[in-house]
From TrEMBL:
Residues 917-937 have a biased composition (Basic and acidic residues). Residues 1173-1185, 1204-1215 have a biased composition (Polar residues). It comes from the Eukaryota. This is Kinetochore-associated protein 1.
Length: 1407
């Protein structure tokens, strides 16, 4: 710290010096008058910042001036008293020296006056004045002057009457005098030349100056301590300076000198003069150094901060204090014999404090002490320091340490958060508080709202259109807001801001929490938007999945119609699956638009599945997993999300493999020191950072979680892992921590299933082989116990070779230290630990077991004794659950803590029974000679002497109703869960941590249905340690149970309640011991994870989706089918369901075009297929063609055996012409056949056969000849096998004959065989017999130019709008605009029944 030193007055003449000076200093007011040896008076005034300086010679004012030696200013600053060497006093009005605005009406004098003092009785030397002081009486308000001389006399002069009122003998030469006054009296502190001090009382509470001095009493001040007292200080304080000890004692007043001081402060050594205030002490040492002692600032060691102001070369006269109540450091003014100097500090007191705290690591304790010393509020001072730091940065003085420290102090002192944010916003530095708030939010959830408000302030400042460089900032702000919305909600204004800036992830988060409040707003925004193409389809699908559609039933239809327009832009399978699920669920609310939305989404989904070659490998999707204290979910973006921590938590077991030391294999476990590792607790769901490998599809389809690791399965069968890996369970060839997902050593080929135990892992590959690795202590890796004695961890996947070969493995289950295998024949085998019944041993057949928890190592594969066929199996901890084909639930094994609790209860029960037996007979002892019985024989029979081992045996839990088939099961630590085929979720077991989801801690012995949330269909469930996670059919992730390690993804949910205590009694009569129980940290009922949507579409197979689409379209009305067909005609999707939708709506041409595209893309009509299709020769028996009217995608039985048969026999279907509409109806004996849709080449041939059959039938009955002609020509161009059908139909041959071109040889051959007299090529196709037609059509070519002309006619004619086809009756009808209510209702009925007018009117059943 430095000062600007400037001289206000300087005596230029080398022979001129300042003899004396005096001052009046008050807040915003200062008067200084200096007297020189040449008789000059220098006057300085400063009033409210206005400074004046004047110099006057005394003789100019008062010519009779005698040499003056002392100068005093009266307390009212109106008069100057000059004490001359002869003892006389000249009084001058201040206004005669300088123009001032005060002292005009002074009662002392208006002109210079000489007061002569008769000191003739004193010796000349003793007359010399040495010290003077002026004061005002508290009783009569008169001004007095007191001065002392070398003779030790004190003269008191009444300045109003200009006379001496008292002579007082002080006893020795007087060096200095100071006047002290309090509320009751006034006194003079007189300092002798030898340093002794006396106290002279000049006024009392009831007596004036004259009366008091008439009986003046002189009181000696204790000089033995070496203290020198002074009173010209702030707040009327009395200061005792001890130069020898370099200390200053501060007393409240003169009456408290005998008491302990208020404080004792250090000053520089050899200090002889000082000025004290609450802010600082100005000290002057013997060598004329001036110091600033900032006594309000003390370091942790207690040392004050002392700064040197100046080094004065001239004789130092004294200090002029500056009185101020501002936050600034006051100027320091002092007088020397040559000048009056002002020292101005270059920084404020707040800057000084800020710099000091920076050296003391911004200690809040020090700041509180400093604030108290300055008599300020600590919080207010912390705010001021923050403002100072911000201002310094705004001025270009960047010091990140100071700024962050000041901000930290405001938080530590609990300054109101809005105040902090407002302060930062004034300097546009709101971002600075974010890291501090983030850290505090984890400890104090109430801080989330403050953090949210901060982000919203930034959101308001975002421009409507961001530049490229601003997009990253916007993305980061969106991610930050997303975290806040997990804990907070948004106002309507904030929500509209989010919509304005397209922050869809935040919108999804809010919808997932409060869908009823925000659904209508988002729906209205989507409807008003001119286009939906700019909205991310991933965000859009997520938002729609969180909609509360019941709140927008009136606009559901229009919204779905608009959403259909953007479906063709969606290119992600998971998003299309989500859209399809939404549409399917909305069909009951808006049948038409929802069916269109669902059908198009599903068709696009099937298209992408067919186009993706990676789907050729069948993998089992497992989209959620739970470890002991962690969880993983595959989101709809096919990315894995993780939360929780890699610890076992409170799980304790005698066979626990963990060591007390942190050294593994001689290496320190440094995982905790690595940044980015998931060893640290992850409070909220976070994405795994997957490695990027060129040419490798890392789409995750399955996850599995153990206690300390996570496995991930990609679509192409690769497995990745990360975690602590202490036992090699990550399978990467070592036991070091795996910080990021790393590929497991590919010894397994391509995996289809992954499994994670606590410390070991497993895989089933596409050859149905099992691979295990990791912890092997108890034989859980099935390493054939006869040949392998080493059970050290296996670090890479190792094939299991000791499994039975009579049936392939269906699935496996990895528990804590055991492994179970379920085979396709329904048998279950196991290996590993069986200490608590994991392998269902019969306890009666086990020998040498002394402890119920003694580890039993099963080194060989052992069959679990279940006589029925098992279809489902689960085991993740110490017990297992199996579901049989007959819907029976079997269970074996037990959790160790449950076993210990049973043992404890039995022991307590036995003790109580023994005590009761001893008290029988009133406790009288047996008499001598009586038979002494064994005390155990007299115990009641119900006393249990040992723990039953029935838990080790297999037992039936319940026979579940066969009408509710169980589709999935999960066994947790002490509870279980199942899901039935209709989507109901049942749980049973322990519920101390609310893990059953029923809202209570009641244990359930049998499966109990979960009723909340209402009307939810469940898709998958995982039972964890003391918590449960499940996903609904729409992909919502629900969690409930224990959350002490943030394993439920909701962050810290611990309640801030009073700690619960339990008092334990002592057996040795000591005081009871209190034990604090942890606060309840559970989620009681199923609660959705905000913003996270699981990839539930991955769990629905291709065949299931096709079957569901078939069922939905079978119920759709005709208008809906037409709408879907029109959309698909604009956006063709080359899959067979699209073909059948076109056919069901009567659009033959688009159906044919799609069939051609499908065949070209899939090479369906390759030479091999053609040979197979035309295996029947012309001499084969005729096979009737089939009608495929009715359901557009219905399976056909035996279609494979009759694929595209080209026969010569005409179709037995007889035509019945409808004269009114021109329809040719098939006879009722041609019943519709269902069409089987499934992937694979064979299934595609089946679908093509069925599609071609129905296409041909619609072509035959189509009313427009141009449509018939163009459809047949297009099929002939694509070489569709329709030659026999066309040859058998003379009417169609007549239509296409003009458009066909025949080779000359074929034409001549056909002509000569029938009519040899006719010239070649002169006969028409209809004139030939069927056999000749067949041969000729097969080699004919289509005239492209003629076909093009037909197409142009059709495009101009718009035939689709002229006809309406009805799928259920297979009739075309002219499209007429209906007018009138009755006709409109009749048209709606036809559409609903999918029948034409005549069929509806006659009640004719569909063919």
């Amino acid at each position: 710290m430095s000062f600007d030193v400037n001289a206000i007055i300087r005596v230029e003449d080398k022979d001129e010096t300042i003899l004396d000076y005096d001052y009046i200093s008050e807040e915003n007011f200062l008067v200084i008058v200096a007297l020189t040896n040449t008789g000059k008076l220098h006057v300085i005034t400063k009033n409210f910042g206005v400074q004046k300086v004047e110099t006057t010679t005394i003789t100019d004012i008062y010519p009779e001036w005698h040499e003056s030696i002392l100068l005093v200013i009266t307390p009212d600053a109106s008069t100057i008293c000059l004490v001359q060497t002869n003892g006389s006093v000249i009084i001058l009005p201040l206004k005669s020296l300088i123009e001032v605005s005060w002292g005009v009406s002074s009662s002392i004098c208006s002109n210079p006056i000489l007061i002569s003092i008769d000191t003739g009785h004193l010796e000349p030397l003793h007359k010399l004045p040495t010290a003077a002081v002026s004061f005002t009486s508290r009783l009569n308000h008169k001004s007095y002057l007191a001065y002392g001389n070398k003779g030790g006399k004190i003269l008191v002069i009444d300045l109003n009457v200009k006379t001496v009122v008292a002579w007082i003998s002080a006893g020795a030469t007087i060096e200095n005098m100071e006047y002290y006054s309090d509320t009751g009296s006034g006194s003079l502190i007189v300092t002798h030349f030898v340093g002794a001090q006396i106290l002279v009382k000049v006024e009392s509470e009831h007596c004036g100056v004259r009366e008091t001095l008439a009986h003046a009493k002189i009181e000696e001040i204790n000089y033995s301590t070496g203290d020198k007292f002074s009173c010209h200080h702030v707040d009327n304080a009395v200061i005792a300076l001890n130069p020898n000890a370099s200390t200053v004692k501060v007393f409240a007043n003169l009456n408290g000198l005998q008491e302990l001081p208020l404080s004792t402060l250090k000053v520089p050594q050899y200090t002889w003069d000082l000025f004290y205030s609450q802010k600082y002490i100005i000290s002057v040492t013997d060598d004329n150094h001036v110091y600033l002692n900032l006594h309000f600032i003390k370091s942790e060691s207690g040392s004050p901060k002392i700064l040197e102001i100046a080094n004065v070369e001239e004789k130092f006269l004294g200090i002029v204090p500056i009185i101020s109540s501002t936050d600034e450091l006051d100027d320091c003014v002092f007088a020397t014999e040559k000048q009056i100097v002002v020292c101005t500090p270059k920084i404020s007191i707040n800057e000084l404090v800020l710099k000091f705290l920076a050296t003391e690591y911004f200690s809040p304790k020090l700041l509180v002490e400093i604030a108290m010393n300055l008599q300020r509020e600590p919080q207010a001072m912390a705010k001021t320091l923050l403002e100072v730091a911000l201002k310094r940065q705004a001025d270009g003085i960047e010091n990140e340490c100071e700024l962050n420290g000041a901000l930290a102090l405001t938080l530590e002192l609990k300054l109101e958060m809005p105040t902090i944010i407002q302060t930062l916003a004034q300097f546009n530095q709101s971002d600075l508080i974010i890291p501090f708030l983030m850290a505090r939010c984890e400890r104090d959830p109430q801080q989330w709202s403050a953090l949210l408000e901060l982000y919203i302030t930034k959101l308001r400042k975002l421009p409507n259109k961001q530049l490229a460089e601003d997009e990253a900032k916007k993305a980061q702000l969106e991610a930050d807001l997303n975290k806040c919305f997990m804990k907070c909600t948004a106002t309507k204004e904030t929500f509209m801001l989010l919509l304005k800036h397209n922050m869809w992830s935040c919108i999804s988060m809010l919808l997932s929490k409060e869908s009823d409040q925000f659904t209508e707003t988002v729906a209205a925004f989507l409807l008003e938007s001119p286009t939906l193409r700019e909205i991310s389809k991933s965000a859009l699908s997520t938002c729609l999945s969180f909609f509360d559609w019941s709140t927008i039933e009136s606009i559901t239809g229009p919204l779905l119609k608009k959403l259909v327009t953007c479906l063709f832009d969606v290119t992600t399978i998971s998003q299309l699956g989500m859209f399809a699920s939404i549409g399917e669920n909305l069909i009951p609310k808006a049948p038409g638009p929802a069916t269109v939305f669902y059908a198009i989404s599903t068709i696009r989904f099937l298209q992408l599945i067919q186009e993706d070659p990676s789907f050729s490998l069948y993998t089992t999707p497992t989209i959620i997993a739970m470890g002991s204290n962690c969880a993983a979910v595959i989101g709809e973006d096919n990315m894995p999300y993780f939360w929780g921590e890699f610890t076992a938590g409170t799980l304790k077991f005698r066979t626990d493999p963990r060591k007390a030391t942190s050294v593994i294999n001689g290496k320190a476990d440094v995982a905790a020191t690595k940044s980015g590792s998931h060893l640290k607790q992850v409070l909220l769901p976070e994405k795994f950072d997957l490695p990027t490998e060129s040419g490798v599809d890392l789409r995750i389809v399955a996850v599995a979680a153990g206690t300390e690791h996570v496995l991930m399965l990609t679509l192409n069968g690769a497995v990745y892992a990360c975690g602590r890996n202490r036992y090699g369970q990550c399978g990467v060839g070592h036991r070091d921590f795996v910080f990021k997902p790393t590929r497991v050593e590919p010894t397994y080929g391509r995996a289809t299933h992954i499994f994670a135990g606590h410390y070991h892992s497993g895989i089933i590959n596409e050859q149905n082989e099992v691979f295990l690795w990791g912890w092997a202590m108890y034989g859980q890796l099935a390493t054939d116990g006869e040949n392998v004695d080493d059970f050290s961890p296996i670090l890479i996947p190792q094939k299991v070779t000791c499994l039975p070969t009579d049936s392939p493995v269906k699935t496996i289950a990895l528990g804590y230290a055991h492994t179970l295998f379920l085979f396709e024949n329904g048998k279950v085998y196991g290996c590993g630990s069986s200490s608590v019944g994991q392998l269902a041993y019969d306890p009666s057949k086990i020998s040498k077991i002394t402890d119920s928890l003694t580890p039993i190592k099963q080194k060989r594969i052992k069959q679990i004794p279940i006589v029925e066929h098992v279809k489902l199996l689960s085991s993740t901890y110490f017990h297992a659950v199996a579901i049989t084909k007959s819907n029976k639930i079997y269970e074996w094994g037990i959790a160790p803590h449950t076993l210990r609790m049973r043992a404890f209860l039995i022991k307590r029960f036995n003790n109580s029974q023994r005590n009761a037996a001893k008290k029988e007979g009133n406790g009288e002892p047996k008499k001598a000679g009586e038979d002494a019985e064994d005390p155990m024989k007299s115990l009641p029979e119900k006393v249990k002497t040992e723990l039953s081992k029935e838990y080790m045996k297999l037992h039936l839990v319940t026979q579940f109703p066969e009408k509710e088939l169980i589709e999935q099961v999960s066994a947790g630590y002490s509870h279980n869960a199942i899901i039935t085929e209709n989507g109901d979720l049942y749980t049973w077991g322990k519920s101390l941590d609310m893990q059953l989801g029923h809202g209570n801690k009641v244990e359930k012995e049998a499966p109990w249905k979960l009723v909340e949330p209402y009307d939810t269909k469940w898709k998958y469930v995982v039972a964890g340690r003391c918590s449960t996670m499940a996903i609904s059919s729409c992909g919502r992730v629900y969690v409930w149970g224990r959350n002490d390690k943030s394993q439920l993804g909701h962050g810290n949910t611990k309640k801030a309640e009073t700690q619960r205590k339990v008092f334990l009694r002592s057996n040795n009569k000591q005081a009871a011991k209190s034990v604090e129980l942890p606060n309840d940290n559970c989620i009681v009922r199923p609660t959705p994870l905000p913003g996270l949507h699981a990839a539930v579409s991955e769990m629905v197979s291709y065949t299931q989706r096709e079957q569901t689409l078939t069922a939905v379209l079978a119920k759709a009305d005709q208008q809906t089918l037409v709408s879907i067909s029109r959309y698909l005609s604009k956006h063709p999707v080359p899959v067979f369901p699209s073909v059948f939708i076109h056919l069901s709506s009567g659009d033959v041409l688009n159906a044919v075009e799609l069939l051609v595209t499908i065949c070209e893309n899939s090479k369906l009509l390759s030479e091999s297929n053609k040979k197979s299709a035309t295996a029947n020769t012309l001499s084969a028996a005729s096979v009737p063609s089939r009608s495929v009217a009715g359901s557009p995608i219905s399976p056909i039985k035996g279609a494979k055996n009759e694929l595209n048969r080209n026969t010569l026999s005409p179709s037995p279907m007889q035509k019945s012409t409808d004269d009114k509409n021109g329809n040719a109806s098939p006879t009722p004996d041609a019943a519709p056949q269902p069409l089987l849709l499934s992937p694979g080449a064979t299934a595609q041939l089946d679908q093509f056969d069925a599609s071609l059959d129905k296409t041909w039938n619609l072509v035959r009955i189509h009313p427009f000849k141009d449509v018939q002609t163009l459809a047949i020509l297009r099929m002939l161009q694509a070489r569709f096998p329709i030659y026999n059908r066309l040859a058998a139909d003379s009417r169609l041959c007549r239509l296409v004959d003009p458009f066909l071109e025949y080779p000359p040889s074929a034409s001549s051959s056909a002509s000569s065989s029938v009519h040899s007299s006719d010239s070649a090529g002169s006969r028409k196709l209809v004139d030939l017999v069927v056999r000749e037609r067949f041969s000729l059509i097969k080699v004919a070519k289509v005239s492209s130019s003629k076909a093009k002309a037909v197409r142009q006619r059709l495009e101009h004619g718009n035939t689709l709008d002229q006809l309406r086809y009805y799928a259920d009756c297979s009739h075309y009808e002219k499209c007429v605009i209906e007018s009138g209510h009755a006709k409109a209702e009749f048209a709606a009925m036809r559409s609903r029944l999918r029948k034409c007018s005549r069929c509806v009117a006659k009640g004719r059943p569909p063919p």
